[in-house]
Amino acid sequence: MNRTDIDNDTPATPKGPLVRFFMSGWSNLVRMMGVNVLFIIFNIPALALCYYMAAVFIPMLAPVMKWDVFITITETDGSEVISYQLLLLLVVFFVMALLSSLLICIGPFQAGFSQVYKGIRTNTSVSLFSDFKRGIKENWGKSLVAMLIGIVLTIVFLIAIVFYASLGSQSGIVVAMIFGILFFAFILIQNFVYNMMVATDLKLSKIYKNAILLVLLRFGPCLGLALLVIIFYFAVPFFLLMSASYLTLGIYLFLYSFVVISWMQYFMSYYTGKLIDKYVSTDD
Predict the structure, then answer these.
(1) Interval 56-65 mean pLDDT
(2) What are the tens digits of pLDDT across the range 79-96?
(3) SS3 per-residue string spanning the chain
(4) N or C: which end of the chain has fewer CB within 10 A?
């Protein structure tokens, strides 16, 4: 018996959220790459602030994080000196880690990018620049406050980590680790905040409250999300840059200029959207 007609009427197997994420991202690949490039260009003022913070915190963090071993070289006479080329690469790592994780960024511009990601996620995007301008126009006030909160708390966390880790005691190390955990939790919160900002009409205080509650409520998945943040915003860039070869430097420049930042931020937007649909009231 010919069952072609029956087979054709069989509904397609529903695709899982991860498959839909990659399909939507891939179908908007050029737009995603454009967002990645624009994110860096529009955040040049934030890059300047990150560079200043690198000049302040790297000398304090290097001994604590054992970065000295990566930026020192042995001279022919056996003495060890700091390589300024390797130090510059460490600065690049520090600057881009703060920027890409949204701890230090231009808030209104990030609201615009979050609107672009929302349009891709919901398949309601008009155009990159139309969505971008809408996100800025509708959320510039809240995003400016979120930007200031990000700057202040990032400085507080870094100072706390350096201070307690420098004590050298076991209790100091434990407290420094606690602040380190809070540091990465705050990265998730900031990403949730910008995405929730463009998806709801909530006041900023309620947005932060909901972002914190989501991290606590979905602790397990958020732990996995934090692991992805550590891998793609900290571990991989550190490895590529500190390898100090032209090949790894080229790979880093390509990936983080065109691919990784936008895909990670879109993944945050996609995951936040699912949480908003399930847990958050969008009315103020």
Answers:
(1) 91
(2) 677 788 899 999 999 999
(3) CCCHHHHHHCCCCCCCHHHHHHHHHHHCHHHHHHHHHHHHHHCHHHHHHHHHHHHHHHHHHHHHHCCHHHHEEECCCCCEEECHHHHHHHHHHHHHHHHHCCCCCCHHHHHHHHHHHHHHHHCCCCCHHHHHHHHHHHHHHHHHHHHHHHHHHHHHHHHHHHHHHHCCCHHHHHHHHHHHHHHHHHHHHHHHHHHHHHHCCCCHHHHHHHHHHHHHHCHHHHHHHHHHHHHHHHHHHHHHHHCCCHHHHHHHHHHHHHCHHHHHHHHHHHHHHHHHHHHCCCCC
(4) N
